Amino acid sequence: MGKQETNLQKKIKKQLLNEFGGWWVKTHGDPFQRRGLPDLHGTIGGYSIWIEVKVPGREKELTDLQAETLRQISEEGGGLAFMSTSPEHAKETVKNFLQRRRRKNAKKKNNKLDRAPDSLPE
Length: 122
Prior knowledge:
single chain; alpha+beta; Trna Endonuclease, Chain: A, domain 1; 3 helices
């Protein structure tokens, strides 16, 4: 990982903190950590978000292991995991994810209200 990618990670993290708040950390690979984990991990409102950062033009450097890890987090873990090349892209991706989740949760809440009994016991 070069200085460009490090700077881009910092910019993305700053953009997301300013826009959404939450908690964010940069993951650092070492011999005791699982290989393929994305560069940034955050939580916003209880949702887990993972981002693999690539410098523009280097998107094809995403390894098979990184791609599989992103898929597992999204499909099996229920979080958001994606590759990003800019703060703007990361912001829009997170924004769209949060909007979809909020709509889904509102729909579930409305469905529960629809099934509620007409009168409550006294």
